[in-house]
Amino acid sequence: MHHIDVIRIPSRSPGDTSGLEALIASGRVAAHDIVAVMGKTEGNGCVNDYTREYATSMLAACLGRHLDMAPAAVEKRVAFVMSGGTEGVLSPHHTVFTRRPAQGTPAVGAKRLTLGIAFTRDFLPEEIGRRAQIEETAAAVQQAMRDAGIASSEDLHFVQVKCPLLTPGRIAAARARGCEPVTADTYESMGYSRGASALGIALATGEAALPDLADAAVLHDWSLCSGVASVSAGIEVEHNVVIALGMSAEATSELVIAHEVMNDAIDAAAVRRTLETLGLHGAEGLERIVNVFCKAEASPDGQVRGMRHTMLGDSDIHSTRHARAVTGAVVASVVGHGMVYVSGGAEHQGPAGGGPVAVIARA
């Protein structure tokens, strides 16, 4: 079984690896124990956000030097998930996950944090946003759960996926083979990819059944969703990267995780309930938090608690950027700082307009 550690480090720029280098140099982290890195970068989070690719490349190169491996080989060993967009008070940072063999004997009756990773195959452009991506993601989630030693969906608290998007080149390549992608709008393709991946998570956890997951359900049937799904799309991948976070009685970590579902973008009560589940009360409780992870989106019905919002109709700023700023401020107001992981675009990730929120803390 596993012993998991999680460390959050600030980032001065998308290419900054000094925090990771310092962790390794100090002996706090061994490079060969790192299995995943999740980061927030200060790009726009849209199709042309290359800060995600740049950050991944720099982190892979950094670890490659310590592991004596090519960066491409590191990316097949470590699950990198870079989420673009630190609007408002959100602060760029990386969260580093390490995994070692279990340390000592697990505490009797106590479950602790565990983590598993998996990768799908590369997707053809015409598979993005459709049934193939749903099924492949479901299989990868189940593989990641086995890798983590998560015994059941009840112990699964957060599934982070990095998924691809469509570019003009990928669209042209599909059409040259006589295949039509789900959309010709590259920005819209991010939503389709996130949505299909989230439905794959729902399939893996039993929150949705395969007969209900036809192509037409993606971005249309909002009753289908997963309460533990968090998906970020990016230009830097052609496959899905999966990180499964949960609890196990066999794990020996000093950390725990819990999650709730935010019903809308300003649901601070759900964040507080998550803290309460972990026994985090007052200033002392907040100091035990390692990081908060959540999804945010502009409600597709154009309303928040019965009041009209204008995020979907703002031609100057995409709605995902508004949503990250809003929910980022809500979470920051509860935990006392903005160095939290808030990802925009929550299609089928929790109820429409809302999204899951998870907290990792010291037990």
How are the secondary structure elements laid out?
Layout: E1 2-10, H1 18-26, E2 34-41, H2 51-67, H3 71-77, E3 79-84, E4 93-101, E5 112-119, H4 131-148, E6 156-163, H5 168-176, H6 186-205, E7 229-233, E8 241-248, E9 255-262, H7 268-277, H8 282-287, E10 289-296, E11 303-304, E12 307-308, H9 319-335, E13 341-344, E14 355-362
Parallel strand pairs: 2-3, 6-7, 10-13
Antiparallel strand pairs: 1-4, 2-4, 5-8, 6-8, 9-14, 10-14, 11-12
Helix pairs in contact: 2-3, 4-6
What would you note in describing this structure?
The protein is of the alpha+beta class. The chain has 9 helices and 14 strands. 31% of the residues lie in helices and 26% in strands. The strands form 4 sheets. It has a 4-stranded mixed beta sheet with strand order 1-4-2-3, covered by helices on one side. A 4-stranded mixed beta sheet has the order 5-8-6-7. A 4-stranded mixed beta sheet has the order 9-14-10-13. The chain is globular. The protein starts with a strand and ends with a strand. The model has no long low-confidence stretch (mean pLDDT 97).
